[in-house]
Amino acid sequence: SKASAEAGTKLQGRTVDVLSNISTVRQYVKRDYELEQLQILTTNKSKKGIANLLYTEKLLLINSAVLFVFALGMFWLLVSEWGKGGISTGDFVLVLALVSNITNSLLFVGRAFNATARTIGELHEGLDDILFPYEIEDAEAAKKLEVNEGKINWQKVKFNFGGVSVFKDFDLLI
Description:
It contains four helices and two strands; from the N terminus they run ααααββ. The chain has helices at about 1-20, 20-25, 30-85, 90-130; strands at about 155-160, 165-174. It is elongated.
């Protein structure tokens, strides 16, 4: 579940990155590269999703098999006792109805466990990103930073990419 969630997050992040930078991608002819990267991430997400689905389906199959054996044993016991006159027809029908309800409830619980495992995988993947240790830590005697205002001020920024001037004397104040 965690691997599937992680693959989905990477795919979603890359897709947002490509779509938000589409003009830059077109400008520098990186379209084919970006599409190839998206294809790789999509394929990875698909493989992880299928692996997760197969795992959960195997668990449901095992759960269903156990329930089937249990129900078959109950049915055999009921028919045997009913044939001997040990239980009435009303008892027979009552126990069959109860077994049916219990089986449905246990199948529901199995699906709930699978959904919980999927959610736990997504939580682990998300928490791995959030709880990443800080790269920079304050010195022990550091004073508390007091911020009265904040701004970003670029002045005369120059940036070249692939031999092409992208910014020349670019100013930005935020």
